[in-house]
Structures
1.
Amino acid sequence: MAGLAILSLQLSHFRSHQAARLVFDGRPVALVGANGAGKTNILEAVSLLSPGRGLRRAAAEDLARRPEAIGWKVGATVAGLSAAHELETWAEAGAARQVRIDGKAAPQVALARVLRMVWLVPSMDRLWIEAAEGRRRFLDRTVLSFVPDHAEAVLAYEKAMRERNRLLKDGVADAFWYGALEAQMAQAGAAIRRNRELAVARLMAAQEGAETAFPRAGLAITEAEPWGEDLALALAEGRRRDLAAGRTLVGPHRADLAAVFEAKGVAADQCSTGEQKALLISLILANARALAADLGRPPILLLDEVAAHLDMDRRAALYDALCALGAQAIMTGTEPGLFDSLGARAQRIRVTDEAGRSALQAEAP
């Protein structure tokens, strides 16, 4: 099945790219070049064609090329969920990021009606051994791929929680103010929990029976402070303790994602570095398979330095899985040989740094 795809990409004053244009044909893409040449910057630009802050979670002002710092722009022609579209996103110096779809201003969330993306970046290699916050971000990004409206529930919850935390820090004891905020948190929190549980169920189902060289990951959502079915009640009962702490101690903002290498019965944080990477890749592929089943087309995959910690056989297995899925996977690597097993199934683009400017050149397989 033909997947969602970037057909052409234009960058202006974006990170190391003063001006660049790339044309893709829907096949996987291998971006090859030395560290610092600008490969990941291309992936980041593509990631901004979806809602949110992109794969580096950078602020809009940090994306502009230096020293000019005059703002930046990313434009693309894409094969979307229902038709081809022209997408643009940009930010002028000192201004917020903006989006246009087919020449018309649009909110960021509207990008999810055109494209869906899944990504894996080197910073995620520490997912299973870092603090719970990183796993929550990974989980919520996965949720967003299935339920784009999840972002609104998260924003509503966080806004109400910030206001409640302000009352707690100020020592306010008025039950009326707490009650109103806690009702908002309970409504949004229930949606967040529902969406997260749905996403985990979809990942587990997509791993079931899949023919893959990557290990099945058993997943579970855990809570630092279980709150049952009534978050508003849990918040009300916990006010005295929260006042002492100066912050909210119960709710979906304290959830965690636990994973187990099922074949070995070993928790992910106890696995080897290579096994942890394989578990992540397994989940990314499961995410893509589940979206392909839901949408009728696989998503775009952004895989930064994906070959790290993979032996030759696992690399070949990954590329076979991507091609079987029919997905446009845009990958980076420092050596051309990392992509040898793709043969003619992929486009290859050399990325080089020339006097502080990134340059691109298409290469034959």
2.
Amino acid sequence: MGNAVGPERRALVVEDDEDIRDLIEFTLATQGFTVASVDSGTVAVDLVRSTDPDLVTLDLGLPGIDGMETCRRIREFSDAYVVMITARDDQIDRLIGLETGADDFISKPFDVHELKARVNAMFRRPRRGPAPVAAATIAADEANEVLEHGPLRVDVDGRRVFKGETEVSLTRTEFDLLTELMRTPTRVWSREALLRSVWETEWASDTHLVEVHVGNLRRKLGEDKVTKFVRTVRGVGYRMESPA
């Protein structure tokens, strides 16, 4: 990809600290983004709805509605990449932030090179698939890569997931994670290997990113005590459960 991600890319910086806001704006601008910024979650939701940015950086500790609630509202209608930025050390805050649909998080103070690397890694993955169509058409185009595992079907090119005839709504990161697991269903993936493959990062401290997204994926796929799709291999990582 190179350092710049292209002038057509738009980013929204949501941050109430002016110095940090300016730093993120400058960093993203050097990456080729057209950048807008606001200091309010409420305003951010309206702006995301009206401008459809490709990327949102979102401070967790916003006044009024905080970053978690802002992210929840954005996720109701937008598939923009969301990077949560937090000054809190509380692990629970980070996990909750990811459960609202954030794709990644960065802790303050952060290195601008780390921010660039994470953003570039995200944009090496497709942003969005085509508009939804009827479930029956999933295999209409034989050129599409379609993965099947038990009742799960993944239309890789269309970036759509079905459980039986019901479409499952996943974030881009959840989709990429499921696709990686389903392509090699008998392989046991370590958390570090999934970080490298899905998030394209070597930061070993981010293995909890994998844990949270696997938990979200299981919930959205409707796992329960009887039906399992992703198995935890204790002390190693994850693989697909053998179909019943």
